[in-house]
Design goal:
mainly alpha; 5 helices; elongated
């Protein structure tokens, strides 16, 4: 029984590390992420002109609020994927072969749909 609690503790530690590292990377590249989110059509169109891109805000807290919302969104998305993976890998040893392949197929389809949804935004 202690072995399972140790495993859960390790997986929670890995999820906390994921949150911290994703927050740090999102904060360091916040301008690039904001540009990629707001200007996806410039990446698709080859003949578009790349003019100087800047935002006009009426208050300093507006841009800080946008950066924080982007960081929270990316953190939540990454945490969701890793948490589902850790739950599946924790419970996979207790599953029958049919249950394992059924859940594995559902996870593959869900991850594919999630990736397609993130790329289309």
């Amino acid at each position: 029984m202690i072995k399972y609690f140790l495993e859960i503790k390790n997986r929670v530690f890995l999820l906390l590390t994921t949150i911290f590292s994703t927050s740090l990377i999102s904060y360091l590249y916040k301008e690039t992420i904001l540009f990629l989110i707001t200007q996806p059509e410039r990446l698709i169109l080859k003949n578009s002109s790349y003019s100087t891109f800047y935002f006009i805000f009426t208050n300093v807290t507006d841009i800080i609020s946008v950066y924080i919302q982007i960081i929270i969104f990316i953190n939540f998305q990454m945490l969701l994927v890793f948490a589902i993976y850790h739950c599946f890998s924790f419970f996979s040893q207790a599953m029958f072969r049919f249950e394992y392949w059924f859940m594995f197929t559902i996870l593959k389809v869900s991850l594919t749909v999630w990736l397609c949804a993130m790329c289309c935004i």
